[in-house]
Amino acid sequence: MGGLDPALEAHLAGGLTTVCHAWKISRKDGKVFAFTDHDLPLSFDGCTFRADAGLSAKAIAQTTGLSVDNTEAIGALSDASIREDEIEQGRFDSAEVVAWLVNWGDVDQRWLQFRGTIGEMRRVDGAFRAELRGLTEALNRTLGRVYQKPCTAVLGDKQCRFDLGLPGYTLTIAVDVEEGGRRFIWDGLPGFDEQFFIRGRLDVVDGPAQGLFGLIKHDRVKGKKRIIDLWEPIKGDVSRGTQVKLIAGCNKQFETCRLKFNNVLNFQGFPDLPGEDWVIAVPKSSGTNTGGSLR
Can you tell me which residues the record assigns to a coiled coil (predicted)? Predict the structure, then answer.
């Protein structure tokens, strides 16, 4: 991860060393956590690195090729640092991790040893174990386009280009009735037809669960009630009065793109792609063969 600082190199060559490790974790929501395995706090890079978190790390495996660098961090769960409920909510997923080897006698002498992200994170007997993935992890992604009838874009992304900020496609509303963080019930959602939000999202706008979201499985009317069910429960407190944002759903079909979103020019599927039955069909003398669309 870059050349060794000459002053640190000279210190290490001296035989008697005063070095430790330091880690900084930057979550996507902007929160930053800094730890060290030294017995006193350290300050550099605009952070104070806590010494009371019980954080340690296994040896970092690094290569000069394109294989994925990885290691594992182990630490104690604490209300003041990394909390169990935040791990459960996925708030540390893909957080950036930077690790240094530091001369605690002179923190200006340090070596950037690792930079990457948090992969799998799990809880074990009052502690956490976090898999750390190096920058080459991005090379494991599957690239290329899939040729299929349904659209391959995500509603509102750079391929879809649909503006979800347009009126009539989102609704911010306070929670009325909530059951297990998975079912939400209102007296009605005026202006939105039944199943309008199916395959969409429910984002939590405020409260303890702010920033969390769930994918919508069902959007139905039962009697005078509008019921929205999620595939997985929101892993946080979404009590009555919490503001949530409902985002329209898309089933990836050509007709939906044309009629519901008027976004057919950006449709990323191939609706006229022949199916398997057509591929294995044999020639026949009957019927009209115009060379036109098979739809």
Answer: none
